[in-house]
Amino acid sequence: MQITIFLFAGIAETLGQRDLHLDLPEGSTVQELTQQLAMQYPQITEALQRSVVACNEEYASPTQRLQPGDEVAIIPPVSGGQEEGERGTSTCFITRDPLCPESLMKQVSNPRAGAILTFAGTVREFTGDQQTIFLEYDAYIPMALRQMELIRNEIKHRWPEVETAIAHRIGRLEIGEISVLIAVASPHRAISFAAGEYAIERLKETVPIWKKEVWKDGSTWKGPQTEHWNPQGDESRCR
């Protein structure tokens, strides 16, 4: 059977392509797929060991069996298929255009809100002694939007009175530009702070968006994880 595989961030850059097709025996598992990839492309073996796999836009376990025609994505550790323009809804979207806090606040504003919190992640110039020239963001857009909506649903389940909106940039961002924006409205400020922190931590854990740091003398794709990560883990640890 033939499986379509989508590649992102450093893996796509290393292989010089964003998708490939792999022929596997019927009934092969996700683990067998990654093993075959490592055999055919040994230069990405280390990256594969730190990545997880999504099947048809949902995270998959190593033992999940693949079906003919499945679309698989190799998801490296996240930062936090590009397409032009904006994708998503007014309360959950990915865009190449600059993000506006006031516009996102309007999406969550309502008569019950006594507090509206906004969080803006911006591009900083220095990480330690390393000077950044600009950042480049990549995303598996369909799955990223799905995961962002799941975060909004998790927040609504925990705090029914909260309204949340999430937006993220892709493409090239200069120093000082906003890369991610979250707006949270609730009756009281304490809930807004809790829900806002929950949103950004879950986004960094589960949403397939990556950043490339570009310096004067080089560049690297980065995510917060240095070991194998588990985006399917229990979200209760984010409380």
Secondary structure blueprint with pairings:
Elements: E1 2-6, H1 9-15, E2 19-23, H2 30-40, H3 45-49, E3 52-55, E4 58-60, E5 71-75, E6 87-89, E7 92-95, H4 101-108, E8 115-122, E9 126-127, E10 130-131, E11 134-139, H5 141-158, E12 163-169, E13 171-174, E14 178-186, H6 189-206, E15 209-215, E16 218-222
Parallel strand pairs: 1-5, 7-12
Antiparallel strand pairs: 1-2, 3-4, 3-5, 6-7, 8-14, 9-10, 11-13, 11-15, 12-14, 15-16
Helix pairs in contact: 5-6
Quick synopsis:
With 239 residues, this protein is α+β, with helices and mostly antiparallel strands. It contains six helices and 16 strands.
Describe the structure.
The protein is an alpha+beta fold. It folds into two domains: 2-75, Beta-grasp domain (Ubiquitin-like (UB roll)); 87-238, Molybdopterin biosynthesis MoaE subunit (Aldehyde Oxidoreductase, domain 3). Helices cover 28% and strands 33% of the residues. The chain has six helices and 16 strands. The strands form four sheets. It has a five-stranded mixed beta sheet with strand order 2-1-5-3-4, covered by helices on one side. Strands 6-7-12-14-8 form a five-stranded mixed beta sheet, with helices on both faces. Strand 3 (52-55) and strand 4 (58-60) form a beta hairpin. The protein starts with a strand and ends in a 17-residue tail after the last strand.
